[in-house]
């Protein structure tokens, strides 16, 4: 079977080059052709020797997940459903803003962590995505969003300026593949994004968060959603294994090396559940020792969720209390509402195997 080179970061690509009798520096050329130019035909890689191009054509491919659907919302948000085999589909969302373009990338087919307000969590879990399937989302978006030009030379202008690992799945539960994809995002011969412009969002897998700090400390977002353990145990069940005290201590350790000097806490606003004045005051006390920002997320309803979005007034009051306490707080705009591309709405297409979900959950909490 042909080797999919999208699965390889710089080091593995150099190993692959050595295996086929080529000099390791070829890896850098290949990275640029694959990730900067989006070229899939080895014959078009004009600065590679003809013999190498023939060898690559025989042995390797460059394949990202196939597009099943492609929708654009009235606000310009674009959502792709991508096929990843066996009837499964993952979702990737591009959010254009005035000075940047953010791509929300998935890391797993479904998610085993079953946060009660989350559409992905309701789908169960099928499997981890490969490196090619993770980086393939960025590769595909750059190709599709690139301004119309015949120029395929490396370095053509990019539209995606920021990546957030906030799509389907818990990124830190697919640690090795996610980190290799992050390496590619940061590699100057691939996407060259700065660590500040790549964000990993976690529900709080503390040991993996410590590993990320040591291995590849990019910007950090934490799905907090509750100001105390009793409530968080209900909303984010992984909290039973890694309660708030441990999670916040891990955030402090992370900040010692993080590219930004704050953690972004995500807080979905659920009517009558976590949005009261007393919850806001409890939250202020909880994070008093942690440099942080808050992102309040109006809940996006989906069938069978059992939750309602907090009223605009409750969100405003909650935000103002945090602001008055000196916490930088923004209310996330709901983008792409009309194509179900807003936060917590990514459903994809998950062929759930109940045993797989149970096994994956057990692996996260062991
Ligand atoms: S919020 Fe994140 S960790 Fe929780 S179920 Fe959804 S995708 Fe998984």
Briefly, what is this?
By secondary structure, this protein is α/β, with parallel strands linked by helices. 34% of the residues lie in helices and 19% in strands. The chain folds into 2 domains: 3-61, Orthogonal Bundle (DNA polymerase, domain 1), CATH 1.10.150.530; 66-365, TIM Barrel, CATH 3.20.20.
What is this structure's SSE topology?
Blueprint (H helix, E strand, L loop, with lengths): L2 E2 L5 H10 L6 H11 L13 H10 E2 L4 E7 L5 E6 L5 E8 L4 E4 L3 E3 L8 H4 L2 E4 L2 H15 L16 E4 L9 H12 L11 E5 L3 H10 L3 E5 L5 H7 L8 H12 L7 E7 L7 H10 L5 E7 L13 H13 L3 E4 L22 H12 L1
Parallel strand pairs: 1-2, 6-9, 9-10, 10-11, 11-12, 12-13, 13-14
Antiparallel strand pairs: 3-4, 4-5, 5-6, 7-8
Helix pairs in contact: 1-2, 5-6, 7-9, 10-11
Bound molecules: iron/sulfur cluster.
Please describe the structure with a list of short key phrases separated by commas or semicolons.
DNA polymerase, domain 1; 12 helices; TIM Barrel; 2 domains; 10-stranded mixed beta sheet; binds iron/sulfur cluster; two-stranded parallel sheet; alpha/beta
